[in-house]
């Protein structure tokens, strides 16, 4: 026989009567705690991802600014070279490579060669180059 009084279920046995606490409150509390932990975990992952993407965007902008600054320096140097060649000086007789630093590890290299008449030039190369040697990691220790 079952008898309910004040939120407890009484189970009548032949020898003793005991009262059981309501189970519904415990399950709902565990569910709320689990959902709160899940939401906190997802929020932490989203925050970490947003911070990482922000850092990558900042680095990308800095690299682009450095590249365009080096391009501007190259354009100024080529303009000066063009002015000198237009004035009648034939200062460009062989292929030359001009170097414009972008960062500690990269530079812009512009390669120019004299044109047929000797008073003009052609750009035959415009590229970014790493200035430091890349070192490969032979071994990666995963478990210590």
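Q: What amino acid sequence fits the structure above?
A:
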């Amino acid at each position: 026989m079952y008898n309910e009084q004040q939120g407890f279920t009484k189970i009548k046995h032949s020898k003793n009567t005991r009262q059981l606490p309501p189970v519904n409150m415990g399950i709902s509390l565990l569910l709320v705690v689990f959902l709160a932990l899940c939401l906190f975990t997802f929020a932490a992952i989203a925050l970490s991802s947003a911070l990482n993407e922000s850092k990558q965007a900042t680095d990308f902008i800095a690299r682009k600014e450095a590249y365009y600054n080096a391009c501007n320096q190259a354009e100024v140097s080529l303009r000066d070279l063009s002015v000198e060649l237009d004035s009648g000086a034939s200062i460009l007789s062989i292929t030359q490579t001009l170097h414009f630093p972008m960062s500690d590890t990269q530079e812009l290299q512009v390669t120019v060669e004299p044109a047929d008449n000797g008073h003009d030039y052609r750009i035959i190369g415009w590229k970014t180059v790493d200035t430091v040697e890349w070192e490969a990691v032979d071994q990666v220790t995963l478990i210590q």
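Q: And what stands out in the fold?
A: The radius of gyration is 37 Å.
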